[in-house]
Amino acid sequence: MVRTGKRYRTGRADKHYDAIVIGSGIGGLCNAALLSKLGKKVCVLEQHYTAGGYTHSYERNGYEWDVGVHYVGEVHKSWSMIRKVFDAITDSKLEWAPMDNLYDKIIINDKTYDFYAGREPFKNELKKHFPKEEKAIDQYVELLSEVSSKVPRFFAGQAMPRKMGQIYNKIKYFTLPKYFSQTTLEVLEELTSDQELIGVLTAQWGDYGLPPAEASFVMHAMVAKHYITGGNYPVGGSWQIAKSIIPVIQKSGGEVFTYAGVDKVIVDNKKAKGVRLKNGDEIFADQVVSNVGVLPTINYLLPEQAGKEYNIKKINDGIKLSSAHLCIYAGFKGTTEELGISKTNLWIYPGYDHDKNVKVYHEKPEGDLPLIYISFPSAKDPTWDERYPNKSTVEIVTVGQWKTFEKWADSTWNKRGETYEEIKERIAQNMLQVLYKHMPQLEQALDYYELSTPLSTQWFQWNLEGEIYGIDHTVKRFKQDWLHPETPIKNLYLTGSDIVTAGVGGALMGGVMTTSSMLGLKNGLKVMQIIKNA
């Protein structure tokens, strides 16, 4: 069993820490490690049996899968911010393996488009398919870099004290180009009228969960820029991320505890003082950080009176939950070489109009799935064959609907009854058939598979409706001035993807922003100094 962290038992934790972090996803671990680098004693509390959140791995029937780290961009560049942050919080112990130059293969209506690493290879390949759109393709790639250069200014308010950050977040749009207030479709339609090209350019929308007419262009641009120079994978599997960070937290006297579900944040006179665990134990701290998402924090962790410090109507008007997802974890007999498996991800769609595909799916869930993403973790990890000889793994991901599984929400994981299992099996077979259509050699090698549903995500990740990316990345979401690391409750902070954006990189930077905000204006720059010196 792949596990990281120390199992919690009464008496193992100290009674008081400098900070408590609820949830061990990458945002929480980053925050805890940076605070530890500054000499703070930090306690991280995780309700799951292993630390890492979406960066953890799990093992079953002799196979191992990642649950969220399918690939990470830019860490192969030692000077990039994301690589510098990872080096800072792991003491440079985390290693990365590059994927193939062909990192994403887009398949729409059975027509294939290859995304090659590097700006010029990326553009040249697209121009072969769209020779009349050379100018638009060049402009698009330039625009990705332009957005990237302005993103630090866009999120700067998240590192400031709350009141200052709220003012900044209200006025920043007057200093930024209009595309920061537009959807992906609006921006791309200003570059080209070719809807097929737009469908190809936005084919990674599954990485942030919204089709182009709904998604903020800033979110799309950050993801596209993040991967345009190629993808990478943690050497030894995604669980190595938490394993590499935990010793940094322990060096300052801190610890990462598992089986440590938090019941409530202890709030006294509008000040967070600590947490009460589900077993009744109480642990106190000068500061408390929630890494479970803004809505779960308000709905689950805060006492009712404290929750009223948030304007619930304003929240409900400004944000909504992201999509749920379904994932098949499949194991195959044979090495990746024997089975003809590469490191390249597959993105498969029934048509170029992603918004229409999603709309049709919501109206007829039994019809074509709006996207299928297929990843090959055993091919991406160079240590795989040593650890799991003569075996290979595949993950097949698609969007899911909470309403399909909601009736079983109060049941226990792995004990949900025959009807639930029948629905899962029907969905799983549909998804496997997509895999076999494109990789028929795998059908006879299948050894094991299981399907995770939105209920699995809710059970293990503590989400409200099995959402994969926290709150949705719409234009409206990014205009919420109240969405800040510092909460209305003194000494209580938020971190993770809801503070910045989805994905490993977004949640990681959420940890950076939260740490800066916790330290205040005088000491906040110390965080960047730690990262710079990594």
Radius of gyration: 22 Å
CATH fold call of the largest domain = FAD/NAD(P)-binding domain
**CATH homologous superfamily heading of the largest domain:** FAD/NAD(P)-binding domain
Strand tally: 20
Our estimate of the beta-strand percent is: 15-25%
- Which structural class is indicated by helix and strand composition? alpha/beta
Low-confidence stretches: none
- Per the principal axes of the C-alpha atoms, what is the gross shape? globular
SSE layout and pairings?
Elements: E1 6-7, E2 16-22, H1 26-37, E3 42-45, E4 57-60, E5 63-66, E6 72-73, H2 81-90, E7 96-98, E8 102-108, E9 111-116, H3 119-129, H4 134-155, H5 162-171, H6 184-191, H7 195-201, H8 217-227, E10 231-234, H9 240-251, E11 255-258, E12 262-268, E13 271-277, E14 282-290, H10 294-301, H11 304-307, H12 312-318, E15 324-333, H13 336-339, E16 345-349, H14 354-363, E17 372-375, H15 377-380, H16 384-387, E18 391-400, H17 402-405, H18 418-438, E19 446-452, H19 454-461, H20 475-478, E20 492-494, H21 503-523, H22 525-532
Parallel strand pairs: 1-11, 2-3, 2-14, 3-11, 8-16, 14-20
Antiparallel strand pairs: 4-5, 6-10, 7-10, 8-9, 12-13, 13-14, 15-18, 15-19, 16-17, 17-18
